[in-house]
Amino acid sequence: MRSDTPTATTAPAPTTTTTLVHTPATGAAEWWRTAVIYQVYPRSFADASGDGIGDLAGITSRLPHLARLGVDAVWLSPFYRSPQHDAGYDVADYRDVDPLFGTLDDFDTMLAAAHRYRIRVIVDLVPNHTSNEHAWFRAALTAAPGSPERARYVFRDGRGPDGAAPPNNWTSVFGGTAWTRVTEPDGTPGQWYLHLFDTTQPDLDWTNPEVRAEFESVLRFWLDRGVDGFRVDVAHGMVKEPGLPDWAGSSSMIEGAHEGTTGSEDGSTGAGNQGPMWDQDGVHDIYRSWHAVLAEYDGDRALVAEAWVEPLSRLARYVRPDEMQQAFNFSFLTALWSAPVLREVVTASLEANDAVGAPTTWVLSNHDVVRHTSRLGLEVPGSKPNGIGAGDPQPDEALGLRRARAATLMMLALPGSAYLYQGEELGLPEHTSLDDDERQDPTWWRSEHTERGRDGCRVPLPWAADEPAFGFSPTGAAWLTQPESYRRYALDAQRGTAGSTYEVYRSALRLRREFRLGSGSLAWVDGLPAGAHCTVLAFVNRELLVITNFGPDALRLPADLTLVHASDDLPVADDDAVLVPPDTTVWARLTA
Ligand code: GLC
Prior knowledge:
Structural class: alpha/beta
Bound molecules: alpha-D-glucopyranose
CATH architecture of the largest domain: Alpha-Beta Barrel
CATH topology of the largest domain: TIM Barrel
CATH superfamily of the largest domain: Glycosidases
Low-confidence stretches: 1-6, 256-265
Helix content: 10-25%
Radius of gyration: 24 Å
CATH class of the largest domain: Alpha Beta
Strand content: 15-25%
Distance between the termini: 28 Å
Largest sheet: 8 strands, parallel
């Protein structure tokens, strides 16, 4: 395509000065250091049974898609027995599959099939709380205050003369108080139990050796079946400050990103929090013991921390050599769409993890946040509302997708391990006009309908444009209604179509392997033309130069670069120079 777009700047030449911030690790070759890990949210991935809820057999049937896409591993959100008050993050039995998703046999079949495709499988472990329908909690309710059954959870007497006020002022992450009062077996109003999340998710007391022993046994149950690792839910919340002191701050795990700045000197973006329920030193003891359990098994099994902790140096404590293998990098996820902000976050992330010998992870979307295609189409690109509804300001869908593809190509060129959330390879936007009556995230009612919550990123995937429920389910049933726009994003509408988001992802994953970017290096290109440091991000990883244009004008690509990949079509100027339009990332090969 010819273009006469005015261009202000020439992209950096490969010969300009660079700042090296990360060198390839030597000797460390475990798979999780460089893996691309795809998050499957089972209820929304593929439904084989036809009840409108995805299941394990559905995952097995779609493994060829994941193999063709080129991912190294999958992480499965919970499929255990659960009353589903928080979409399975309320576990009633850690050693069984919920009938909604199938059986243990279906799990074994899926795991074996994934391994045949050389795809590793990480399962979700939810140790901060159980379901209120877990046998332990049922026993706690019928037992007396002070009993061993209650000692597995955080039961306390209420405040005030009649104990009618909660034991402290903590609020739940989903809104409202973090305490619920029980009725004692004799019918009198009784003690209170702590739940950092929904009332149906009572927190366990991790100072109790019985709790620790039980979870080591649960780890072994799944390790014996052959899983390759665990994503550890709320890994920063399991130990609370002794005495459970009042806390005036918000207990939200996901504080909003600071607008326009990184908010701190070390690349922190506001993903962390400091309350007495988060990031207590005692959690590290637990991870050291789990590390030892995994080390008894072959095959480099891995623990991944879901820890909304900042600064990044504090997060890196979770991935010290004798603790977990990885931690999600939420500072990166919450960074705004800005070259200086991203440069700072990437640098700080690599420095913090390199200091403890751990790989840095990169992630843009998951089942708890608005999809990055939609976040990046908001007025403040990259800002992070807790859900978007029909009455809210709507993202610019085309602009958001363009930026999302650019962000993804930048991410996939970074050294370390990257996480993809199901559907992002299709460029799926958030469902921003879901009927409020359909919402199932407890956030929606616990916040008294002020926060729409996470259903919009959890809508079932479109596989085939012209099939019922876009191929999600053979009967056309879907637990959340898919928007009509998903027809355009269906896999079969994109497969084999050059330039489709799916093909851009697929090529990126192939090239990432070919160029060994995961185990590569990172050097920022500094010799940018005056002013461009605010609008251009450029780095070198091995022999690739990666350029993202955040500015309003197209960049000219120097003639001595060979184009390897791009997040969108690149126009050509009248003098034959290749142009990098706004909100585009290119990968180019450096000529010696
Ligand atoms: C984690 C999960 C989230 C869940 C919460 C409570 O943040 O990712 O989906 O609601 O923990 O288990």
